[in-house]
Write a structure and sequence with these properties.
417 residues; alpha+beta; FAD/NAD(P)-binding domain; 2 domains; four-stranded antiparallel β-sheet; binds flavin-adenine dinucleotide
Length: 417
């Protein structure tokens, strides 16, 4: 009963892409998630909107979508349910859409189950153990895909991982996203352009502890409700529970500091109240695996087209300063995009474990671009497809036929060129 062809750990966008692809390609698939819903960051960390992953080809003016397949399908489902405005979406609809897609594909779900440990024999993972209301539950699989965002399974199985940037292992800051209700949308829109200047003035006066040097306020799909991802807690280790607790406490203070600032300085917020904070403080970066290839910023900037490309991107290299204020960017010129090789999903020396999502094998800088939802979903789709091919062909994840993987992704409308 507890034996599967493919077990995926973590039900964020990467895990959902992986589970749907694995099940649709015929594998007996289980998706394990610690929370009670799918979606990961958008549902648990209140991350919104979808950042763009497309480019306009200068010669033809054609819009080239770089994330297709399961991601595009999910966005279309959200649109057809009236749950999207521009690139902003309603996460409650995302959760139910993903549940329905899993049921249609025949992927089994196991919620409220926290991955605890992986059992490894040589270069293979044999089983994973999760903790839930039933106790400690051991799950056996032929192949595993770590989509925890933090590379929890790869780390536990003893495959090499790194934390943050190499010089000091600091990661991009963590952010507790939250929403505010009772905002006058007309007054707010009129005054929006002033927010950053007023924020900086107040910071200079020493009234604000939050290190952000400017803040952005996003509309939501609901009139009068806005969303902020403007808290910033720095120098905490996102995979150390004591540090995460300190980050949670500090970020919650910042939520109310931000709200007080808006009420006192920005017209439209006078009668507003904090509505909700995310279930979890958002993690942009934590552990990453050392895979068969480590993707670098140089490869991104030179728009490398790898022979084993399984995904493409051109989101900017968007690094929130791990030490305090400021965010650095590298924006890709229109018409330019990079690819991501399959080898970045393969932990060094692994026979049957793949990794997808924000914790693939990339440097601190390269991860700052590949981490958006549109891209991690395609990484998941590639990992799920690869594991299903490995299972059907009785191969290791290192030895699968890459042409077959790319052809299968192309046949499923997943963009890989
Ligand atoms: C503050 C913030 C703002 C961002 N803004 C944007 C934005 O505007 N647009 C955009 O496109 N992207 C944005 N991103 C990036 C993007 O949201 C994430 O990088 C992406 O969603 C990561 O997807 P993932 O599937 O790799 O990981 P996650 O979405 O983190 O999914 C991991 C899943 O695994 C589960 N899990 C973790 N550990 C375990 C375990 N031990 N056992 C069982 N389950 C486990 C988690 O509960 C979660 O569901 C932002 C990120 C943050 C933090």
């Amino acid at each position: 009963m507890n034996k599967y062809d493919i077990i995926i750990i973590g039900g964020g966008f990467a895990g959902c892409g992986a589970a749907l692809a694995a099940a649709r390609n015929g594998a007996k698939t289980l998706l394990v998630e610690r929370l009670n819903c799918l979606g990961g960051a958008p549902c648990a960390m209140a991350v919104n909107p979808f950042m763009r992953n497309w480019t306009k080809m200068p010669e033809t003016g054609e819009i080239k979508q770089l994330s297709k397949g399961i991601f595009e399908e999910t966005v279309n489902d959200l649109r057809s349910m009236g749950a999207m405005r521009s690139n902003i979406f309603n996460p409650e609809y995302l959760k139910i859409i993903l549940n329905h897609k899993m049921a249609e594909a025949g992927a089994e779900l196991l919620f409220n189950s926290f991955f605890v440990t992986a059992e490894r024999e040589g270069s293979r993972v044999k089983s994973v153990t999760v903790a839930n209301k039933s106790g400690l539950v051991r799950l056996e699989g032929d192949y595993f895909i770590d989509c925890t965002g933090d590379a929890d399974a790869a780390f536990s199985a003893g495959f090499p991982t790194r934390l943050g940037r190499p010089s000091d292992h600091l990661c991009q800051p963590m952010t507790l996203c939250f929403s505010i209700a009772g905002v006058d949308p007309v007054k707010f829109d009129e005054q929006y352009y002033k927010i950053v200047d007023i924020w900086r003035e107040e910071k200079k006066k020493g009234y604000i502890k939050n290190p952000m040097d400017g803040i952005m306020v996003f509309h939501t799909v609901f009139p009068g409700i806005v969303q902020l991802n403007a808290t910033r807690v720095i120098k905490y280790n996102p995979v150390d529970c004591r540090d995460i607790t300190k980050a949670d406490i500090e970020a919650r203070e910042q939520v109310f500091e931000l709200h007080n600032f808006l009420v006192n300085h920005i017209p439209g917020f006078e009668n507003s109240k904090v509505l909700s904070t995310a279930v979890q403080t958002g993690v942009r970066e934590s552990r990453m695996i050392d895979g068969e290839h480590i993707l670098t910023a140089d490869e991104l900037i030179t728009c490398t087209k790898f022979e084993d490309a399984i995904a493409a991107g051109n989101y900017d290299i968007d690094i929130h300063n791990p030490e305090g204020s400021g965010t650095s960017h590298y924006f890709f010129p229109e018409g330019q995009y990079y690819t991501i090789p399959y080898r970045c999903l393969v932990p060094k020396g692994s026979d049957n474990l793949l990794v997808a999502g924000r914790c693939i094998s990339a440097t601190h800088e390269a991860q700052a671009s590949i981490r958006i939802m549109a891209i991690v979903c395609t990484l998941g789709e590639a990992a799920g497809t690869a594991a299903a091919i490995a299972s059907a062909d009785n191969k290791t994840v290192r030895d699968i036929d890459i042409n077959k993987l790319r052809a299968t992704l192309a046949a499923n409308n997943a963009c890989i060129d």
